Amino acid sequence: MNPAHAQTLRDLLRTQEVAALGTLHAGQPYVSMVPFAMLPDVSGFVIHVSKLAAHTQDMLASPQVSLLVVAPRSPDVPAQALARITVLGRAAQYAGGTEDHAVAKAAYLARFPQSEDLFGFADFSLFVIRPDSIRFVGGFAQARTLSPQTFADVLSDR
């Protein structure tokens, strides 16, 4: 990945706080909105969701999910050229009281400190989406598929 695209990817995930989450809902595609944070080792996307939401039940029934993060619209960039990533991965619920939960919670609250109260609600839980593959589009006709390791290396600026 060239340095400009690597920086675009880092900027995209640093500045965008919301992703479209694709799940399987009663055998049909279902897309919802979720705020997300990254684990400190950039190995997964942390989401904090309610059991009352359809996407939570969907992830429990079928952990294969997709996330889409898109750069904001800019007047000088055609919509088709907006930087974006599509993540194909597996969602796993993190049980409270575990070290993994504590790490994920800290990452989430570092990005969304206003969400602290939601952690007191019994119906909310943390999920981490671990990527299997990442499709990065750095602009028009500038797409490439990244392995989880390459993705982590780019985000860690290695």
TrEMBL record:
Keywords: Oxidoreductase. Residues 8-137 form the Pyridoxamine 5'-phosphate oxidase N-terminal domain. InterPro entries: HutZ, Pyridox_Oxase_N, Split_barrel_FMN-bd. Pfam families: PNPOx_N. One of its GO terms (molecular function) is pyridoxamine phosphate oxidase activity. Its EC number is 1.-.-.-, 1.4.3.5. This is Pyridoxamine 5'-phosphate oxidase family protein. It comes from Thiobacillus sedimenti.
